[in-house]
Amino acid sequence: MLRVCLVEDEQSLIELISLNLEMEGYHVHCFTDGQKAFDLLSKPFHFDLIILDVMLPNVNGFDICREVRKHAATPILFLSAKGTTADRVTGLKLGANDYLSKPFDLEEFLLKVQILTHGLLSADNQEYMRVGDFRIDFTTFSVQGKNGVEVHQFSKREIELLTLFHEKEGKVISRSEILDRVWGTDQFPTTRTIDNYILVFRRVFEKDPKNPRHFFSIRGVGYKFVS
Hints:
Elements: E1 3-7, H1 11-23, E2 27-31, H2 34-41, E3 49-52, H3 61-68, E4 76-80, H4 85-93, E5 98-101, H5 106-117, E6 128-131, E7 134-137, E8 142-144, E9 150-153, H6 156-167, E10 172-174, H7 175-183, H8 191-205, E11 215-218, E12 222-225
Parallel strand pairs: 1-2, 1-3, 3-4, 4-5
Antiparallel strand pairs: 6-7, 7-8, 8-9, 10-12, 11-12
Helix pairs in contact: 2-3, 6-7
């Protein structure tokens, strides 16, 4: 079950969001105090999506978002009555994936949640994948060698990209599909960003990174993964 952290101080909205997300199969953990959410999210956590109000008691949502982005790439959706263009730009610049102004349409909100969590937590279906002699644990983001010893620790974004490769194994994935699936439509990384991730994967998994057997670049198209 995907885990959602909801940081919101309006009780009626908490009940509405929690009820509808739980009906969609999400587990929702709620905070009404910005400081308590900040303290929890400033450390390693196990949420698949964070939904943030901006105006919160003690610590505002922008500060929480800024803190999360210091160590995690977990999708963040802002819900706020502060819906000016300047507020939206501020939220997105701080690293949020999307921004929805209050009052909002429930169907649009649920669609945004679905998009942001699409393909996340492979543990709902599979908790690990193999690449050659290596085993990737999607629940801990760690990589173990054939002797079971941890050899690397991935970030959330790297795991999301590996999840996509796992889903599409043996097929060529275009750069545009990767950017849409992993980074979303509100972020604009360059294709060079993907290249850098592929270089990391090759350093971890390939015996000879210059002659890969698992992660292939298809010139002018995209990439292909073979386990």
